[in-house]
């Protein structure tokens, strides 16, 4: 039986570089290359067969501030009179010194017969920390920038306040999360992390500020009791540490953010916990989670194992439905047998509760769950008391 549900046909993706790129595919048989005209100049992309598409690599969308100007706002993109060969594979500067500061570019991939069409934009999120579980985010972290006339501010308000007030562009949202990347590092190196519990202070979130050292160490004591009180083996320590890392840097921030969005957004908000049964963790809390890059591989790769093919088809159909209708499951089908329920906000004593959050568990089960647990309550109580906005300090 097919289950129907009211849908609003809202297209949430926009035209990439809508004002800069306007292209039409030439008629006739496929060419090994294609030239399109943009407001910056003509661009030549090249055909790739698997799957059939044209790629345009390294298109500048701004002139990057470099050297002494690197903390200033970017300048408008350059223009050219000839044809720009879009074959440049560029990466931004890396910790090992490789890369190029001139990296304000986009790579565009179009279907073989595309004309004007909506696009999916992938923006890499970055890190704000480096090393193996070395919390440098207290030095290099996002902050609220003070208003100075000659500078362009990226953040002039705390994003949490913006979400609370609903002062953002309202669109349908689909939020997908996996395990924190550090989890794999810990699970693959039990010995290295046996002593890290004694130094858990170094792994406290950077946006928790305590009034005194006494208060801080009381909170650390509570954290140790919550996560590490009953450990008796090296394996227990490792799994407790993965729980801690995943909770504080992934699941709680996601859960809190999604409740803020759902409370104010005039469109539906969907939450997915992505898992892959081929690499499932052994501890229950982290079961059903996996790396973000696995999701991208499922969606973009044309080479997958037979056992992964069904998962890939499900993800592609969910994404396609969401792009077309603003709803990942407007109706059920043999491929998608469950309607993905949008997030509904629960309140306790007039406060938004980070409990019983509707969530699609994407693994071999493909089922709706309610995201809940003592760990969410635990961190919500800490953040309610000790959260503090990071504000830029001026010398």
Automatic annotation (TrEMBL):
Glycoprotein found in the keyword field: yes
Keyword terms of this UniProt record: Glycoprotein
Sequence ranges assigned to domain Carboxylesterase type B in this UniProt record: 34-131, 139-344
UniProt xrefs under InterPro entries: AB_hydrolase_fold, CarbesteraseB, Type-B_Carboxylest/Lipase
Record keyword DNA damage present: no
Domain of life: Eukaryota
Name of this protein: (African queen) hypothetical protein
Natural source organism: Danaus chrysippus
Native organism taxonomy: Eukaryota, Metazoa, Ecdysozoa, Arthropoda, Hexapoda
């Amino acid at each position: 039986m097919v289950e129907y549900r009211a849908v609003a046909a809202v297209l949430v993706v926009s035209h990439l570089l809508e004002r800069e790129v306007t292209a039409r595919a030439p008629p006739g048989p496929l060419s090994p290359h294609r030239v399109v005209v943009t407001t910056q100049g003509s661009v030549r992309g090249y055909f790739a067969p698997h799957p059939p598409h044209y790629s345009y690599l390294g298109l500048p969308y701004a002139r990057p501030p470099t050297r002494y100007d690197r903390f200033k706002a970017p300048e408008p993109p350059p223009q050219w009179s000839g044809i720009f060969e879009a074959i440049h594979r560029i990466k931004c500067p890396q910790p090992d010194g490789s890369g190029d500061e001139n990296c304000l570019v986009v790579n565009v991939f179009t279907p073989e017969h595309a004309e004007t069409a909506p696009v999916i934009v992938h923006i890499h999120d970055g890190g704000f920390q480096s090393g193996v579980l070395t919390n440098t985010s207290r030095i290099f972290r996002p902050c609220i920038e003070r208003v100075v006339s000659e500078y362009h501010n990226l953040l002039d308000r705390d994003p949490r306040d913006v979400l609370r007030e609903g002062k953002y562009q309202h669109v349908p949202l689909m939020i997908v999360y996996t395990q924190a990347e550090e989890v794999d590092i810990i699970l693959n190196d039990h010995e290295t992390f046996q002593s890290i519990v004694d130094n858990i202070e170094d792994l406290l979130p950077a946006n928790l500020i305590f009034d005194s050292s006494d208060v801080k160490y009381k909170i650390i004591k509570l954290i140790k009791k919550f996560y590490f009180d009953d450990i008796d083996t090296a394996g227990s320590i490792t799994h407790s540490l993965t729980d801690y890392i995943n909770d504080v840097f992934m699941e709680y921030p996601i859960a809190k953010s999604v409740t803020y969005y759902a409370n104010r957004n005039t469109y539906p908000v969907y939450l997915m916990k992505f898992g892959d049964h081929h690499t499932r963790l052994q501890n229950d809390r982290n079961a059903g989670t996996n790396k973000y890059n696995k999701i991208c591989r499922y969606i973009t790769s044309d080479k997958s194992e037979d056992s992964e093919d069904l998962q890939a088809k499900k993800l592609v159909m969910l994404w396609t439905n969401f792009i077309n209708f603003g709803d990942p499951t407007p109706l059920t089908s043999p491929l998608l047998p469950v309607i993905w329920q949008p997030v509904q906000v629960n309140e306790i004593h007039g406060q938004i509760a980070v409990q019983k959050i509707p969530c699609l568990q994407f693994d071999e089960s493909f089922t709706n769950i309610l995201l809940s647990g003592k760990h969410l309550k635990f961190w919500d109580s800490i953040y309610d008391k000790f959260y503090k906005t990071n504000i830029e300090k001026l010398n």
